[in-house]
Structure formats: structure tokens, C-alpha cells
Amino acid sequence: MAQSVFIPRQYKVRVSVEGSSIAQLISGDYSESEVKPESLSAYPEANGTIWTTADGRRILFAEKIKARPAEADDVLLTVGGQIPKSAMEAELFKARWLAHQPDKSIAAGNAQLVSASWRNQFAFQEEEVDAADNLIQTGLRPPQVGALYATLAHWKVSEKPATIVMPTGTGKTETMLALLVSQRLPRLLVVVPNLALRGQITDKFLTLGLLQILGVVGATAQLPVVTCLTKRLQTAAQVDAVLAVSNVVVTNIQVLEGCKEPALQQLAALCSHVFFDEAHHLPADTWTGVARTFDAKPILQFTATPFRNDAKPIEGTIIFNYPLKKAQSEKYFRPVKFDPVLEFDEALADQAIAAKAVAALRLDLAAGLDHLMMARAQTTEKADKLLETYQAYADLNPVVIHSDGISKGEQKRRLELLNSRQSRILICVSMFGEGFDLPQLKVAALHNVHKSLAITLQFVGRFTRFKRDLGNATIVANLADIQVREDLRELYSEGADWNVLLEEASAGATGTRLRLSEFVKGFETLPNLFSLHNITPKMSAVVYHTTCQAWCPSELEAYFGKNLIETPFINEEEDVVVCVTRSRRSVEWGTIRDLVNTEWQLYLMYWDKARKLTHWVAVGRDISERKSAEEKIQHLAFYDALTGLPNRQLLLDRLQAVREGPGAGTDGALMFIDLDNFKVLNDTLGHQTGDLLLQQVAQRLRSCVAKGDTVARLGGDEFVILLLD
Q: Dihedral angle at the C-alpha atoms of 567, 569, 572, 575, nearest 10 degrees?
């Protein structure tokens, strides 16, 4: 009878530098699910077993042996010489490689030797299948090949940021890996939005994913030295120590945001290329602030959804867009069945959703499909409550995984239950970590639905990923409790065909973003002080009738004179020109030389040649007085007047952002501090002295924390410090 065998990865280097892990593998995790008995043979000299893998490698499993025998290529020491069937069993059996203890130090030139080993080791080999969908040749998928060639073409002619749009499941991460090896990128920085994705991407770069298995990267190519940057760096010297030995640095945005300016600048100086994963987060304030630091480097932005709920644009030209419809026709995006329930009682609704979803899972399992199910809740409280509902299906061993009150070790253990199929049902909150990859998830029970198109597409992408031995996806939701935006209402209606509607919604939103990108690209020159993506002119205009046969927008430079900021920005093909002017004038309420009003004016002109009409839009904003007043009001609302520290309201806002924002799940600490005998000091020395002490305390607390941390004053002598990892 066939059995499963798992062997853990072999580290060449495993070391900590400046608090972050740096590693290089000899080989990655390896497993076979159907090991034939004839591939296992006893080795009585060590009371062990030799397993011959599918690729001919001979592994000896033994408890005690001093040296590798000639009959084996490697020796894996385990308790009692047991053969692990999963990663959890490998840990339980204390599996470790004989004579393969990883180095505790790493030479500065090792990364260069690794990249040198990649020379002539990359093949632009494309996957081939026959008419019956049988695999003829392994290789890169068509969307990966297209993204590679588009990127290489862009890098030949431009250093501007570029965006790659690839639907979930088309191989976005392998595309990053292929670019690293094929171009032998000297030092790559990969930035992700959260901790879960940071770990997954780090693991992918350590192993080069599937590239060597597919034959795209040669067997003699060394695996990269990868740093998982988990600690905020303070100095340029710390950055030098980490980057000098690394081919790839993977980190999340919260770590970069907390780095001191000298460290951030040195990071930007030493990295040769920057990849932003899940780039739809880029317009967020934290992403934008950090991204600007790397403007001088080739930046590549990867996303499945190049649009946001708040309509903020993602800067950078879309150089490759693989449509969802194409992904569906090429079978990278498997068909989706929407199987709704209609129940108006909330308690009964959860039971109805669970019953229908479990029934779908059981049908898939009966058909021999290795499927798993996810029950999605909006909050941790809801997830915990749903466990009671799913206990009725004890044979499927439902598990709840979230970060609120469940230790990382316990989360890992429960996830391993899913990986080993001891559990078939995952109950989780929201997206369960953006970028999470488990292709066997094929049934979704939506006890709370996503309300936006971008998140819905990302979520559904989890269940539609292609794998040859897996079936189609099923989505279950309650039609009686659907509160979504207009662009999703048709999805959650009786008889909805999600395969058609998702493609249409995605194509419409992506098409809008693509047209904007092409329009901006049509300008001969682009502003240095701002991005055309970010202007929001008023939708009103004055229209003039014209009699001329041609127009000369460049003459606006002479018209506006010295008030013009830069030159007119002209799109000849679209007959559009954009100008920004700045004018200063004295205040109207006095003759004071040093006080002036500054006014910025945005002018847009569009010449409709066919109709002989010129559309003129002018948007003016006086920012000198109003902006100052707005800033004062903002400061009074969110900061303590005495110490200048964030007040209770701003602290609560930041706590909510940590709990619900892109960094949800980040480790941290909350410290409550008060001053002993402060009332005695106030009563004896007076309130003025007490105020001076509070100001000194605030100043000293501020000097002790990193840039991204928060020191707040609740009131009186009470302070709170919020520390993020």
C-alpha cells in the first residue's frame, strides 16, 4: 500500500544579522504522496530504512549513525528512525540532517557567487499541453512568459515604475523568481503588506518555487541568500551588514516605515530593484511614503486588482495585463458555482450556509477530489461562534484560525492539521492573510460577504486556482443578507453566473485603470512636483467655440509667464494640456510685507477638433490661510495641547488601524504608564512645575521609541505607548 513521505529542507546558511534571519538552502522541503513499497528498503546496520525518491535520491532514515554509508546520498536522523509523513511529523520526530549543520556565519561575497551561478541557467521554456489538456512539456505558463517579456522590454527603455496585472492563480510569484534569476538582479527588495505574506514570499525565494522542478532553472544554479527583514533598522551600518550578504531582502511595509531615515536611504542606495507585491495597497499613505524613497530604482508593482475601493489610482504604467477572461479560458481560473441559501433568521442562516457548504464538500470528497473548505467570518467573535455550528460535522474536524487569543504555535499546529488533511474545514476571519496559498481550498461558506469588487476578486481567487488533480469551486452565501456595493449586487442574485459576472466586473474596473494609465503615458513630459494620476479637477468647464485649424498649447508658457510651474504638459494625441500656476499677492487686511496669500491654480484644456470646441477647466485653491486653519483644527482634535503628544482619540484610531488595517496580525505591545506622587508635586510646587514635568516626560518617552511607534497622553499623569514589531 502506498504511503506519504516528507523530508525537510537542508540549510547551507542560517544566521541572524541585526535581528533578522538570513538563510540559504541546499534543497527545499520535499514530499511524495504515493510512495510505493518497493522504493523502501531496510538498512539493518543502523536499524533504519532507505527511501529512493522519484528522482533517484537515496535517503536513509535512522536514529543513530556516525557517518553516511555508501548506500545512501543523505541521512535524516529521526526518533526511532521513523519516516515522517508531514512537516508536523518531521518536527515531532526531531528530524535533522546528518553532517548538514548550517553555517552560523556568511561571507560577504557569497551572494555574488550565487548570482554568478545563475549565468546561462535560465531557459525561457513555456508549458505545452495537448488538445486533451495533457502535459507535454513543463515550463512557464503563458501569463508568466508574457509578464517576463513585457518587463524586459520596459526595463530596456524606461526606469519609471511599472505595473504587472495577473489574476490570482496565474503564477505571479514565480514571475518574480524568474526575473531574479534570468536577469541576475544584484540585490532585490520585495515589499509586501503583511506578516503572513512576508513569510510565504520569503519561503518562495529561498526555494525558487517551482522553477527548478519545471526545468526553467538549471540544477547547478545555487539557491539565493534571502533575508527576511523583521527588525527596523536604525543606521546605514546596519543596512550594510544585512545587504552585503543578501541576494534578496523580503520585508513588510510596517518594518520599512519604522526604519530611521539614514537606514531607509541606505537601503534605497544599495538595492538594485524593488518589487511591491499586492500593489493595490500603494496609494495608502504608509505605502506611498515609503515607495517614494525608492523612486530612483526600477520598481515593479504586482497586483491582481489594479483598482481600489477609494478610487485612488496606482501610479505606474500598466505594462502587462492578463485578463481574467483569458485566465478562465486557459483554465488557470477554474469555474465557480454560486450555490445560495435564502434565510432571514441570522441564527438559522449560519446553519443553512454550513449545511449547504458541507454537502458540497462531501460531494467533492466522494468524487475523489482532495478539497478543503473555508468558512469566512467578519470578526473573531463570529468565527469562534461559528465553531459551535460546525461542531455538528465533527468527522471533518473544523478548526478556527485567527490571531486574537490564539498563539502562533497553536495557529501553526491547526494549519498543519489542514495540510495533513486531519481537518477539512477552516473557519477564519476575512481573507485569512492576503496572499495565503492553499490550492485545495475549493468550497467557501460566506457567513459575511466581502462588500467590494477588489477584495471579492482576491478572495474568490483563492478557490479558483488551477491544479490538475483538483475540481471546480463552490461559493455559498445567504441572499437574504447581502449588503454590497452597486458593482457587486448582480453577483449576489438568484441564478447569478459568477464565471461571467466576475470577468465582466474585473474587465470593466481594470479597463478604466488601463485607459487612465495609457492617457497619462501619452503626455510628452510629466510633472516632477506631482503625479497626473493624483489630480482631481472639478467636473465643470467653460466651453469656447473656435475657428482655428490647429492649436499651439506650448504658447501657454508665454501666456502664464513666471507664474507657470514647470512647462505645459501636453498630450498631442488626445489634444489635452495641463498647466499649474502659482501666484502670490499681499493680504487684503493690511500692508504687511512678509504676509502674502499663495494661490495654486490647475488649468486643463481639451480641444475637440471635430466640433471646433475648446473645453477649459480652472481649479484654484488658496492654501495659505485655509490650510493653516485646517492644520490647527486637526492638531487640536488629535493632539494634547500641553505635551504635543497624540491624545486618546488619535491613539484609539491607531489601535483600530493596527487591528483592522493591512498590518493586522502584527506583533506589538501596549504599555500604560503613570507618574507616582504627581498630585503631591502639583500641590506643593504648583501646576506650572507639574506641567514642565509632564512635558519633560513626554519628550523623554518620545526619544525612546522608533518612528512608527506611538506615545500618547490619556490625561493627567497617564501615558500609553504603542509598540509595533
A: -120
Residue of higher predicted confidence among 506 and 441:
441
DSSP 3-state assignment of 531? Answer: coil
**Residue written as grid cell 526600477:** 298
Write the single-letter amino acid at 385. Answer: K
pLDDT in tens, 403-453: 788 887 888 888 888 888 899 999 988 655 544 567 888 898 888 776 555
> Which domain range does residue 374 map to?
331-500
Asked if 13 and 149 sit in the same domain, the reply is no
Number of domains composing the chain: 5
Helix (H) or strand (E) holding 43: strand 40-43
Cell numbers that stand for 159 in this block: 526606469
Q: What CATH number should be reported for the domain holding residue 491?
A: 3.40.50.300
Q: Are residues 674 and 697 in the same domain?
A: yes
The β-bridge partners of 490 are: none
Beta carbons of 416 and 87 less than 8 angstroms apart? yes
| CA geometry: angle 151, 222, 107, nearest 5 deg | 105
Residue pair 719/711 in contact (Cβ under 8 Å)? The answer is yes
For residue 466, give Cα distances in angstroms to 24, 321, 421, 438, 473. Answer: 30, 19, 19, 11, 10
Ranges of beta strands (E only) in 313-440 are 317-321, 336-338, 372-377, 399-401, 425-429
Residue count of the chain:
725
- 391-to-388, 425, 441 alpha-carbon distances in Å: 5, 10, 19
Whole-angstrom distance, CA of residue 328 vs CA of residue 147: 17
Instruction: Copy the grid coordinates of residue 32.
Output: 511524495
- Shared domain for 613 and 656, answered yes or no, is no
pLDDT tens per residue across span 458-467: 677 677 776 7
Q: 424, 444, 401: which is closest to 665 by C-alpha?
A: 401
Cα–Cα distance, 483 to 148 (Å, whole number): 40
Domain boundary among 288, 322, 356: 322
Find out whether 147 and 155 touch, Cβ atoms under 8 Å.
Answer: no
CA atoms within 13 A on the CB side of 690: 16
DSSP 586-653: E-TT---TT-EEEEEEEEEEEEETTTTEEEEEEEEEE-SSHHHHHHHHHHHHHB-TTT--B-HHHHHH
* 512-568 residue pLDDT tens: 666 777 777 777 777 776 667 667 676 567 888 887 778 888 888 888 888 888 888
How far apart (Å, rounded) are the C-alpha atoms in residues 239 and 237? 5
